Amino acid sequence: MSKADQQLRSMAGKPILNGRDSVQKVLDTFRERGGHLAEIVPQYFGLLIENFECERSIYTAVEVTAGSRLFHHIVESDRVGTQILKEMNKQKLPGEVTFMPLNRLTVKEIEYPQTNDAIPMVSKLTYSERYTKALRYIFGRTLICRNLEVATNLARSTKLDCVTLDGDQVSSKGSLTGGYFNSSRSRLEMQKNRSELQEQINNAEGELRQLQATLRNTEQEINKIVGEMQKTEIKNSKAKNLFEKVKSDIRVMKDEQQNLERSKQPKERSLAQLKANLEAMQATKEGLESELHQDLLATLSVQDQHEVDQLNDDIRRLTQENKEAFTRRMKFEADKNKLENLLTNNLNRRKDELMQALQEISVEDRKMQLDHSQSEIVRVDARIIEVTELFKDVDKKVAEAQKKDKLMKTELEKYKLKEKEIMEQMEDDAKDLEKMASRQNLLHQKIDECTKKIRELGSLPSDAFDKYQNLATKQLFKKLETANMELKKYSHVNKKALDQFISFSEQKEKLVARKEEIDRGHEKIKELMQVLEHRKYEAIQFTFKQVSKYFSEVFKKLVPQGHAQLVMKTDGDEEGEASEEQQGTTDNFTGVGIRVSFTGRNAEMREMNQLSGGQKSLVALALIFAIQKCDPAPFYLFDEIDQALDASHRKGVADIIHELSSQAQFITTTFRPELLEHANKFYGVKFRNKVSHVECVSREEAYDFVEDDTTHI
């Protein structure tokens, strides 16, 4: 599409196509603003060349007849054209435009001659009835004739313009215009090719929009599934927390029940002991009371009374000792109760907690948790595979779209931007896939943690319960202390080594993945650089081949017996002809060389530094004319280019300028008569009274002036 626009621009001229682009910008502005300005857009119908079709055989006749009017703009009314021009001037947009308002065009009914040698041109055109005025205004007064003789007779008799299929024109006023017309540079052919390419682009954009819609639907499904997974995980987490809470409440209640049962037995023993002490004390009280009522001193002798007094002293002493012994006993009882409470409330409770923990942490529970985690992983893997398949389908569709784009060879910048957006979307999808992979890694980490805890717990020997079941508590604590002492020997071991290893492994995996992503980006950038380098190489080769072809043709016209060629210089060889077999990059090009021969094709080819002054001028002119054919300029200014040329070469230069004058304006200064033969205007520069004067002169005066100057020389 870009190449077609470039070729059309070189044929129609930059101002005209710049005007076309400016009108499109103005229409886009009107659409954005809306309101009454948006109503103007449907009243613009495009260029004249876009609104009719014809057979390929009359392309030349149609182009010669219409000329630059093919690029006139058809509008509904002069108000529409005025609004568009005002907006162009307001925005300072470049280009020139010519509007054809349908309400201002007047077309007369013409009676065409009934002959088999001519046919009205407008009857061979296919167009909408809406544009009849515009088409009849341009082509209504033109007949397509069989040959130039018929065209001359009909133009004289019907007062209509006539044109042949080869492009020769006969005006109704009597003038004849003709010459060779290069059909390969047909503007109608370029416009037809451009319309087909535009249709292909529109179809490709429609397919792209469908693929984007499919991709968005796939993303929505993925987001929906991820949302459902998150909701399920939240429900599982809440249920797990509730289960743990109920489990902890049951454990606390069991601990309270065991504490009550432990404290019940020592209290019952204390109560029984106190009851026995109370009964003994009551019996002692009764015996003492019975003895209290007996008068023993009266019946006793002095010696017995002395013994009684001594016994009373012993009783008082023993009573005092008994009190002290009872005090010590109560103290020992208190110490015993403290030790029993310590054993009951702390050590036995700790033992029960350890036993409860051992019962809770069983291999079967861990296996059940492991199976549940593995089933969860299998489900997630299946979902990942399903999503991956969806991504593969999307990638396949995108690849097909890209393949179609390559076959169509479209290079529009807008389409590239859309393709870039697709690539960015795919990268976002890849990032989402990486997130899912990271979640899978987290699940694997949870499995590893469970496995680690099982390994740390270890497997108990088969005789462990029988061996330690009958041992006393003190022996168990002693063995536990011995085991702890053995474990202290390994306190210097780095317990975080495994965690550090896992952390560093994860960092390594992330860095490796990042490196692979950067490498892929690097490869894509290299591929883009190669594509751009190849395009630049093709553009240079294409331009060089065009200039080289026209240079050989122009030089052949200037020097019929001579031969010339342009050569592309590269690093590999000092000079080598540019051909299609030559491959490489633009960095290999070092310059352009010229080889000419003025005596024949088989004669020795010479370089520029081996030529005379006149020959150098002739070669330079041939190169300028060749460049003019590739990229025409609006006008050329030559200053005595024929000074060093002989008469035959001056005649050849004059003929070339006359041939090219239909496409550009040539202004030359000369003292030779050859350039005057085909000139349209003549100006003489005279020097009088030390002042130069420029005057418009006739052809005869110009010939006299040149001959007079030649005579004086």
UniProtKB/TrEMBL annotation:
Origin superkingdom: Eukaryota
A GO BP annotation: meiotic cell cycle
Name by which UniProt lists this protein: SMC hinge domain-containing protein
Pfam families hit by this protein: SMC_hinge, SMC_N
Subcellular location(s) per record: Chromosome, Centromere
MF term (GO), any: ATP binding
Role summary: Central component of cohesin, a complex required for chromosome cohesion during the cell cycle. The cohesin complex may form a large proteinaceous ring within which sister chromatids can be trapped. At anaphase, the complex is cleaved and dissociates from chromatin, allowing sister chromatids to segregate. Cohesion is coupled to DNA replication and is involved in DNA repair. The cohesin complex also plays an important role in spindle pole assembly during mitosis and in chromosomes movement.
Keyword line: Acetylation, Centromere, Chromosome, Coiled coil, DNA damage, DNA repair, Meiosis
